[in-house]
């Protein structure tokens, strides 16, 4: 069997945790399996690097930021190789150049295009554990790129696909996927299985266990994912195409407090103007989530959308640069919002879900500001202060005990 | 003009120093020159990485040590690019993979074989300052290597040779090459010029300004070196094939306290045994300096040699592993020694130098324990406690004021 394991930054934050991970990998190796391990940067390394950069240049060039970021994972894999060596287990660390992890050229937000597997396979054949830097790649100019948030998960899934691995295990600080955040919703339950599509909608809705890009890739290449705890041996949640358990109406409730609502005010009410606004944002790789175009008042209208907090500065900047062409008067940003989503393949055939959701919010006297839906997801924007109360109310409504 | 500049770790130790270096580079760039800058790891970064590694594995594999070390210079070049960007100067950082800095495969002590200049030339043509990671390379397996002590100097010289640069400036915390260490010998003078050969003998004798490998390479490819201060604009010392100034009898006096004397005791007095001892050490890339083979007593003899303190553990280990074959009884290591050298092209034609040296030491009642000479160098081993007194006495003898 060939197993790809991915451990995040908190799992390798210090010597003791590095050895915990090394022991898990050694166990797998001693079963006779081939083991490929993807690691993120240790604990706060990435934050420290950001501080270092910002101190020198408040707006560092993205290409150089990637040059700086990529040292983080390189430190992790080198130290892990040393830990395994100390335990008598042969291991070798490889960075994005050594693997040849080809990506698109967008610094800070690149996408994997192609992975050369030759070096990894050679090392596995020599019976070494192969430690690969997550999150990073190289583009066609031979420059370092990074994959954006959750990038190490994507690295792991891509490697599992390229190597035709038997399993791809994502180790995190939670022991699986829950129906809601168990730190905030006491009645939340762990799911045994979940489909790619449900996981995707949960991921884009702010349930931070897996990044959506990694789930998309797993779905595309049929890589079975296992989300497990790096702290204990509990079974975790399997993410795959079809689940065998009897369906609940919804699979999970997610809350995302990282969203910001941007309102572009006083845009001329003329054809194609919304397209121009979103085209500007797309060219800067700003992902727009929920969109609300107001009805026009007079000859102007407002356009609202949500973006990740990380993209706010860039979104505002690119809009301002194009203010004339986009014809707006002003831009407002509201950070005091929360995105609440319910996700479940069951809702396709069950029109009562939306009604149940709005009833639960109504009963709690929580105002809904924007709404967005997909086939298996309903997302609403509420005031940030209402977020957790809303999540508990909705989770309660769908998972009421004894129902 | 194409200028290669190299700055060491102390020159980029913090934000202010990074900007000092950036300003110097910007000045050169604004003259219209092409500028390639080689940087070492910031301040104590390398020490911190060693601590990190040793904490995980007291004897980390060298291949993984190099994987870890190389992040140091990558941080430096990325931050320097950010500083230059902040000043409005276009710059790009490149690591050993991006340049394609090919070396031999010996981890921790690799030698440069070939540098691809294509990427650097392309970037210079785009009028960017090119920032290159010193000290590091890649071997034929596509693994990181490091060049050993003083490696960044070698990187700079090799780049200057490959790019046919007009000058290679080595910036350090001293403002040139002195006749002796000015911190220890108050009468020491700065040299305006020095030959490669003299510089080489000074370097191997512990005068830390330039590493011998970089001087060897400069000599081989005829690269004119300038040793300058990163702190002020004083002229520095030019290192080249022939010097124009009138020759003094000797060029400099150097003291090296980093040497250890190893004595292999009770070796069988049979042909080839010394060869076997030094062959063992050579295979582990341990550089042996002065060798003293004692006359035999009975059927055994002692063999003494000096090595760098860094190589001591390895030297002792490889000898112990081969103890049977090498027939010795025991090994002794004496760290309480100092190597004192006088260097000067003038001594070739002047047989009185040795006599003057020994007279100066005799007058100070300092015992000489081992002796080694080259055409332009005399080195003696004295007790460590006598080192600085010996250096001052010898410097005084050769540079007596009003003589």
Describe this structure in words.
2 copies of one chain form a homodimer. The first copy, chain A, is of the alpha/beta class. Chain A has helices at residues 15-30, 45-56, 62-69, 71-86, 96-99, 118-125, 151-162, 196-204, 212-221, 273-283, 312-321, 323-326, 352-363, 387-398, and strands at residues 2-7, 34-39, 91-94, 101-103, 112-115, 129-133, 136-138, 144-146, 167-172, 193-195, 225-229, 237-240, 252-256, 259-268, 288-293, 300-308, 330-334, 337-343, 370-374, 377-383. In chain A, the strands form 5 sheets. In chain A, strands 3-6-2-1-9-11-12-10 form an 8-stranded mixed beta sheet, with helices on both faces. A 4-stranded antiparallel beta sheet of chain A has the order 13-18-20-19, with helices on both faces. In chain A, strand 4 (101-103) and strand 5 form a beta hairpin. In chain A, helix 1 (15-30) crosses helix 4 and helix 7 runs parallel beside helix 9. The radius of gyration of chain A is 22 Å and the shape is globular. The two termini of chain A are 42 Å apart. The mean pLDDT of chain A is 90. Chain A binds chain B through residues 15, 18, 49, 52-53, 55-58, 60-61, 63-65, 67-68, 70-71, 74-75, 77-79, 81-83, 85-86, 92-93, 95, 97-98, 119, 142-143, and chain B through 15, 18, 49, 52-53, 55-61, 63-65, 67-68, 70-71, 74-75, 77-79, 81-83, 85-86, 92-93, 95, 97-98, 119, 142-143.
């Amino acid at each position: 069997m060939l197993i790809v394991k991915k451990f995040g930054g908190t799992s390798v934050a210090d010597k003791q945790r590095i050895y915990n991970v090394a022991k898990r990998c050694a166990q797998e190796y001693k079963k006779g399996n081939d083991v490929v391990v993807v690691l993120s940067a240790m604990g706060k390394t990435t934050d420290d690097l950001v501080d270092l950069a910002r101190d020198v240049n408040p707006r560092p060039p993205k290409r150089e930021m990637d040059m700086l970021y990529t040292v983080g994972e390189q430190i992790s894999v080198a130290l892990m190789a040393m830990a395994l060596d100390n335990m008598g287990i042969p291991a070798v660390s490889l960075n994005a150049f050594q693997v040849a992890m080809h990506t698109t050229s967008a610094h800070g937000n690149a996408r994997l295009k192609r992975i050369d597997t030759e070096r990894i396979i050679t090392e596995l054949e020599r019976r070494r554990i192969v430690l690969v830097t997550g999150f990073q790649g190289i583009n066609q100019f031979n420059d370092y790129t990074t994959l954006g948030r959750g990038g190490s998960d994507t690295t792991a899934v891509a490697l599992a696909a390229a190597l035709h691995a038997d399993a791809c295990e994502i180790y995190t600080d939670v022991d699986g996927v829950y129906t809601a955040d168990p730190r905030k919703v006491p009645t939340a339950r762990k799911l045994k299985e979940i489909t790619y599509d449900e996981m995707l909608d949960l991921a884009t809705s702010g349930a931070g266990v897996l990044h959506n890009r990694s789930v998309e890739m797993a779905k595309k290449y049929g890589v079975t994912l296992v989300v497990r705890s790096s702290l204990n041996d509990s079974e975790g949640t399997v993410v795959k195409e079809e689940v065998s358990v009897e369906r609940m109406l919804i699979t999970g409730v997610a809350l995302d407090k990282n969203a910001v609502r941007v309102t572009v005010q006083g845009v001329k009410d003329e054809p194609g103007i919304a397209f121009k606004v979103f085209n500007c944002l797309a060219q800067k790789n700003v992902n727009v989530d929920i969109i609300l175009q107001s009805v026009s008042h007079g000859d102007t209208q407002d356009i609202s959308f949500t973006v990740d907090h990380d993209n706010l500065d860039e979104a505002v900047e690119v809009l301002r640069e194009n203010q004339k062409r986009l014809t707006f008067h002003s831009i407002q940003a509201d950070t005091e919002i929360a995105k609440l989503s319910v996700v479940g393949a069951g809702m396709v055939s069950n029109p009562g879900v939306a009604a149940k959701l709005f009833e639960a919010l109504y009963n709690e006297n929580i105002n809904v500001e924007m709404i967005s839906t997909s086939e298996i997801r309903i997302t609403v924007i509420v005031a940030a202060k209402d977020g957790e109360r809303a999540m508990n109310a909705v989770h309660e409504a769908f998972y009421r005990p004894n129902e």
